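Researcher: Let's continue the batch. This sequence belongs to Dolichol-phosphate mannosyltransferase, and it's 304 residues. Same format as the previous ones, please.
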Amino acid sequence: MISIVIPVYNEELILPKLLDRIKSSMQEMDQAYEIIFVDDGSRDRTLEILHEQRTAETRIKIIEFSRNFGHQAAITAGLEHASGEFIALMDSDLQDPPELLPLMYEKLKDGRFDVVNGFRDARKDDKRRRWMTKLFHRIFTEASGLSQIENTGHFSMINRQALDALLTMKEKTRYIPGLRSYIGFRQTSISYERQERASGESKMSLTDLFGLAADAVFSFSKFPLRACLWLGLTGVFIFLLAGIHVLVSKITGWAPLGWSSTMISIYFLGSIQLTFLGVLGEYIYRTYKESQDRPIYFIRKKYF
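Model: Same format as before. Here are the structure tokens for Dolichol-phosphate mannosyltransferase:
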């Protein structure tokens, strides 16, 4: 059986179209499947529409959160409740086409691969968001050293063995594409053009995307700490040269103007120290969050 995990948040406008396209795609495969919707505290008619659809389609399963816990928590809940031998993960906005699910299944069913990622070779969404996403993927790939991550998102299909490995990682600050790459196994990809959102507005603001990017980088890389180290060493080198210059000027009788050089030194060193404190604070916060060991979500009710 194939489990299709879809987190949803305020998607009343898009759900009927999403379900029609999923059912149409799955008919091509003649394969048993289930669709697990995780309602992440929606405030519109999303949950009501899911119940209406479920009366006509028994393969729909619903997990209702007690409140909004975030995209990564909703994905995790869906993966933990999936019962299929193959598990597909996709967002609800139809930017990632359900029509690719049969192709992903074909690559997995013969056992040659364990993970199939959707590779975005082109995008039709907002130019600013497209540029920022591309920049993040490039930085994250270089910083983390993980393969199969650049230009890939959540859209993917994995087998049960890969899912079991992924679910053994229990950290609270999660970035699913990074975890999926980290587990290894035999991975491949399918290229596609990412479409514009089918209806409504994106539920992830640029601030949310920046937060997700920060979680990804701080969770998988020591790059921020290494950058601080190099910045500090660069500052030491610059001011070593500046000290030599001041000493030589004193000896030769040509003393530099005091106020400007002093203020520049203070501002430069202060900026470096604040940067260091900010980076260390990010790591300390995430360490504190892990030590609390709180569940990353609570379920109000399940409809299985």
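Researcher: Any comment?
Model: Residues 223-292 form one domain.
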